[in-house]
Structures are given as structure tokens and as C-alpha cells.
Design brief:
This protein is an alpha+beta fold and about 260 residues long. Helix content is about 30%, strand content about 40%. It has helices at about 1-20, 85-90, 100-105, 205-255, and strands at about 30-35, 35-45, 50-60, 65-70, 75-85, 95, 110-115, 125-135, 140-145, 150-155, 165-170, 175, 175-185. The protein starts with a helix and ends with a helix.
Length: about 260
């Protein structure tokens, strides 16, 4: 009886662990610069560095748009914006950025970057939306900030008389970044030196953690059930032995009588 009680206690503990696991969908959707703070002790004029624009914990994402991404034109100059792997690895996309806005670049901002699926589909999780490549101009500090950030799902709202139908926006928070270069070295940058590139985002990190937790919980429940079954079999076997002993004793008593 004690063994069965212990087994049921284990099952209750395992079920409480499942309830306590927070789903990924409950977390806040974030658009951020990665790395948030890029500190370079030294750099050459003309050296290239890269920062990612990441999205984290998004649900039903169909497309996105960033407007007036700002930087310090005295420290950095934008040379390229590449589409990230998050959307394009799932389906065909339309990626655009204002690559010919040289006046805007000289003033320190990228007017527009946007990306969307070419079909009626969405994606969940975390990943890289875009990678910005800058050329170093001088030492100093350059914030990388967003003026307008929009994430869209594929559901349209009904417009009124003065509006046109557009996709619904997904609420999100933004995390800006900063590039700090302490010292400029003389001479041109080494031709073999690669661009400073941040790592990609693991879109399955949280899901993998939850899978491990669920696996452990399942193992606990299975062990508890096996323990209960074994205890029940032992109890029945013990009753059978007692019954068998009584039967043999009765038989012997009849023989002596």
C-alpha cells in the first residue's frame, strides 16, 4: 500500500512540473540588435563589421518592416543589408531595402528595410531578420536604433472610409544596439580579415528545453506506473501464498483426523 501511495505521489509531482512549464508563446516578442553592445578595442579604416536584426518569440509572422534605422555616419557607413535566414528558409519571400539612398546614408539612416512571404503562410519562433554591414570610418560610438518597427501577420482588418485594408500588426518590444570603436589603427585593413559577424539565433532553443522537461516528466510517470503495477502483483502473490498455506494446513488436519 505504501508503494502505491508513493507511485501516485510521483505522478502528481510530474503533472505539477508540466503545469509549471511556461510555453514559448507566453513570452514577449522582441526585435533587437545583435550584438546589443559591440565593443572593438581597435579597428582599421575601411574594415567591415556586421550586426544582426533578430526577432525572438514571434507567432504567426507573415512580414516585417523597419523604417529609419539610424547610425552615426561619422563612425560607420552602411554598405549592405542582407536578408536573414528566418523567413527565407521556410518559403519564397520579397526582400527590399533602400539601397540607393546615398543621401540618407550620409546623414546616418536607412529609410526602409522590409521582408514578407510571397504566399499566405506564417512562421513562429526566433531568428535573424536581416544583417547590416557597415564600413568603419573613424573611432567613436555609433548607436544602431529603430525609429519604426512593424511585424505583420496574414490577417487583414476591415478598413473604414478613410483607410485601406492592411495586415494586422503583432505587438513587440525593441532593443537597440551600440557599436563602440576605441582606437583606429594606421594602414589599410588586412585583406584576409573577415567581417565581425554575430552568430545566428537558435530558433529551437526554448522548444528543445521544453522537450527535455516533458521527456523527464514522462519517464517519471512511467516509472511510477510500473512501480504501482509491480506492487499490486506482489500484493496478489502474497495473498495467494497465504491462501495456499491455509489450504495445505486444512488438508493435513483432515488427514490426521
Amino acid at each position: 500500500m505504501k508503494t502505491i501511495a508513493i507511485a501516485f505521489c510521483l505522478i502528481l509531482v510530474a503533472l505539477s512540473c508540466i503545469v509549471s512549464v511556461k510555453p514559448v508563446t507566453a513570452e514577449t516578442t522582441t526585435v533587437s540588435v545583435d550584438p546589443t553592445n559591440l565593443n572593438l578595442a581597435t579597428a582599421h579604416v575601411g574594415q567591415t563589421i556586421q550586426v544582426n536584426i533578430n526577432v525572438t518569440n514571434v507567432q504567426n509572422l507573415w512580414g516585417w518592416s523597419l523604417q529609419n534605422v539610424k547610425f552615426n555616419p561619422k563612425v560607420l557607413n552602411i554598405t549592405n543589408v542582407q536578408e536573414g535566414s528566418f523567413l527565407k528558409n521556410k518559403a519564397t519571400t520579397f526582400f527590399l531595402w533602400t539601397s540607393e539612398s546615398h543621401l540618407a546614408f550620409s546623414e546616418g539612416y536607412i529609410p526602409n528595410i522590409e521582408d514578407a512571404f510571397a504566399e499566405n503562410t506564417t512562421i513562429d519562433g526566433s531568428g535573424v531578420l536581416a544583417t547590416l554591414t557597415f564600413r568603419v570610418i573613424s573611432s567613436g560610438s555609433s548607436p544602431v536604433t529603430f525609429n519604426v518597427t512593424r511585424l505583420f501577420n496574414n490577417h487583414e482588418y476591415t478598413p473604414n472610409e478613410t483607410e485601406t485594408g492592411v495586415n494586422q500588426q503583432i505587438p513587440c518590444t525593441t532593443v537597440n544596439g551600440n557599436v563602440d570603436i576605441s582606437q583606429i589603427l594606421s594602414g589599410p585593413p588586412p585583406s584576409s580579415a573577415p567581417a565581425t559577424t554575430p552568430p545566428d539565433v537558435d530558433s529551437n532553443a526554448n522548444g528543445g528545453t521544453n522537450i527535455i522537461i516533458y521527456g523527464i516528466v514522462a519517464a517519471v510517470i512511467i516509472c511510477a506506473l510500473v512501480t504501482a503495477v509491480v506492487a499490486q502483483k506482489r500484493k496478489r502473490h502474497k495473498r495467494y501464498k497465504v491462501h495456499l498455506s491455509k489450504t495445505r494446513l486444512s488438508t493435513r488436519m483432515l488427514q490426521f483426523s
